Amino acid sequence: MRVGKTGWSVAAALLLAVQGQAQAQAQAPKAEAADPHLDLEQVDGAKAMATVKAWNTRTLAALEKQPHFAEYQSRALAFLSDTQKIAAPDRVQGGLVLNFWQDAEHPRGLWRASPIAAFAAGKPEWRTLIDVGALGKAEGKAWVFKGATCLSPAYLKCMVALSNGGGDAVVEREFDMTKAAFIDGGFTLPEAKSEVSWAGPDALYVGTDFGAGSMTDSGYARIVKLWKRGTPLASATVVSQGIKSDVSVAANVFVDGGRTWPVLMRGVDFYHHKLSHIAPDGRLVPSPLPDDADVADVLDGRMIATLKSDWEGHPAGSVVAYSIPDLLAGKTPAIETVFVPNAHQAVESVGSSKSVVWVKLLDDVSGRLLALRRAGDGQWSGQAVALADKSTVHLDATASDSDMAFATVEGMLTPPTLYRVTPGETPVAVQSLPAKFDASNMVVEQHFATSRDGTKVPYFLVHRKDLKGPVPAYMHAYGGFELAQTPSYLINEPYRSGPAALYWVEEGNAYVLANIRGGGEYGPAWHDAALREKRQNAYDDLYAVAEDLVKNGITEKGRIAVSGRSNGGLMASVAMTQRPDLFGAAVIGSPLTDMKRFSHMLAGASWMGEYGNPDVPADWAFISKYSPYQNLKAGVKYPTPFIYTSTRDDRVHPGHARKFAARLQDFNDPFFYYEAIEGGHAAGVEPKEDALRAALVTTYLNLELPRSPAK
């Protein structure tokens, strides 16, 4: 452990030794500048990139020569490039199952299709639609596949989104599914944060960068237009437009058997949007739903949505439905109750097949899948699909012409299995993975810690059965945006750090997944409890879990690493600044750290619904209490963090990570820093990049967390 300015940890001393001249050149903040590191917000600025490359070089020099680094990296690459993995369906349409596949031979991936019958029988017959790596090589681009939107009901044409480098901004190009080729003279949109939907065989709803004033403060489309084939984009007609302070405006088309139902969504903030149905004559007909409801799908002309707050007798978290034809005809549609979760449950996602609404939910953070049907009297009922308990369930895809769905089930020690599920029938395994590691001496436990305000906070603990504590603990969490953290197979835990968690447990340590407030583990109320001025609740939950581990003899103060990415990176950097006594390490991925400027950086304005507006004094009063960049102080004994991000992240600005590192450097505090040049918000494009990060994280943890108990 680090013990003070004159008593560094082994890793800190090593880092300072290789830092050399770069550390000597660190500059103290300039008194005349409010922020001395604004230059690091210049993503490709010469000075910023020189700083990043120096930090990268320094970190690699320190960590790559550590014991077992090469072994960690090569094993991680084998895991991540293994051809024995679930070929989860991204979509089922037009008699085909679509899948995006990456392996060692195709690190950029293959977009491919198989007839649904062959896939459902466990014997897929794959046809490659796009070899992304080959396409990029031919066109001189670093293409990354970002999905496709296909024209129903035949699904023979699609708009394919490609990102040059992995960011959220994409190029949209029309693609012929039969010929597996882009269409010469077809619809094409230049690089932008675009949203497109088919308005018919020869028309698109388009939200994109139409020029000056057409984007919101969050960097997304403000205007949606109808673009007809054979006409220039400039002549497209306006469907609707929002205001500059909106998050985004987009049109989406729901497919319901042989019909389509277009809707217009104006995002007022991250959690509130004005929903209107686009009538056949172009009229916009407002939905009766409250602005914070999440629309999910359409079945038999009924819009299916999940409520985020109590509404007209329906409690928050409920799934409801209403008739679109009735609404368009000028009637007031009846609001039907599809499903109401109990106090232990939370609806995660909803989808529909031919006549069934599928509800994926959590029950004390364990996955469940329900199949619900509507009776003639408007009552909905159904049953749970018989899947493994204490697991994570992924609802991968549903079929539109049958009531077949595909779901993947996995646990921390249980490899994924893909099932074909049909209501009332026993699930059929389509593909099961063999075990990738020996879990015979490992165990997963679920515990509940008590937070500062008395709230019970669940967490998963993984360790060897022969564990004799206290041992170092590696704790991952997120706590935001109503996104639940559920247990996945250990080689994939935590998100995008891959096998580091497995290595940690194999070597006799403890791995923890904490389900803190702000996430979606218990529905809207669990999320709301950490919104805006209540953000500290999430951090208090985190500390409660860490202290519960100490109380139970699993670990000790100073031997715990906190880990998180994106909003979780904010959480990890807050934990480092607020509780340096509790944590001995911090893995800070793609983070927000400068909460004074987050709303002015890339997509940051879209998250003010989550955090508040730092430009409003009343909001800054509570944000300033935890904003990591502003709360770093000279002379404090912080743990040495490992900070990672991507230059091409156009969602969370890399300046957050850079400036946090620079502030540490101002105070002569050590840190590890690695910035992938490609990768977007995922901080990696190819398996080799994720394998490198897994090895870096593991060797970092080995250096920072002492293996022997504190004296």
Protein model, in words:
Pfam families: Peptidase_S9, Peptidase_S9_N. It comes from Sphingomonas oryzagri. Keywords: Hydrolase, Protease, Serine protease, Signal. The chain is α+β, with helices and mostly antiparallel strands. The protein has a domain at 10-78 and 442-704: Rossmann fold (3-Layer(aba) Sandwich). Helix content is 21%, strand content 31%. It is built from 16 helices and 37 strands. It has an eight-stranded mixed β-sheet, with helices on both faces. Helix 1 packs across helix 3 (46-63), helix 4 runs antiparallel to helix 16 (687-704) and helix 8 (500-506) packs across helix 16 (687-704). The termini are close together.
